[in-house]
């Protein structure tokens, strides 16, 4: 493993989550390029742009979304 501190896990989660989400979304958006034989180049370009835009959004929004989700749900009573 990389040996990063557990206190940085939310950043690692954000990097992985935004990268995967952008990879799927840009792959779907790039499907029309498959008929031209340019899918891989188009997908990679789209993914890099989307990931560059979404990574800061995910990292900044995640704590707020977590608090909102906690506020909208109840702790299960054993």
Key features?
71% helix; mainly alpha; elongated; GNAT family acetyltransferase; 2 helices; single chain; DUF2798; transferase activity
Q: How would a crystallographer describe the biggest sheet?
A: none
Number of strands: 0
Q: What is the N-to-C succession of helices and strands? A: HH
Q: From the helix content, strand content and strand pairing, which structural class follows?
A: mainly alpha
**β content, as a range?**
under 5%
**Low-confidence parts, pLDDT < 50 over ≥5 residues?**
none
Average per-residue pLDDT, rounded, comes to 90
Tally of individual helices:
2
In whole angstroms, the N-to-C terminal distance is 35 Å
Gyration radius over CA? 17 Å
How would you describe the shape? elongated
Share of helix, binned:
over 70%
Transmembrane segments: 12-34, 46-65
InterPro entries: DUF2798 (IPR021529)
Protein name: GNAT family acetyltransferase
Keywords: Membrane, Transferase, Transmembrane, Transmembrane helix
Would you give an account of this structure?
The N and C termini lie far apart (35 Å). This protein has a domain at 26-68. The protein is mostly helical. It is built from two helices and no strands. It is 71% helix and 0% strand. The chain has helices spanning 9-29, 39-72.
How is this structure best summarized?
The protein is 71% helix and 0% strand. By secondary structure, the chain is an all-alpha fold.
What is the strand and helix layout of this fold?
Blueprint: H1 9-29, H2 39-72
Protein name: GNAT family acetyltransferase
GO molecular function: transferase activity
Keywords: Membrane, Transferase, Transmembrane, Transmembrane helix
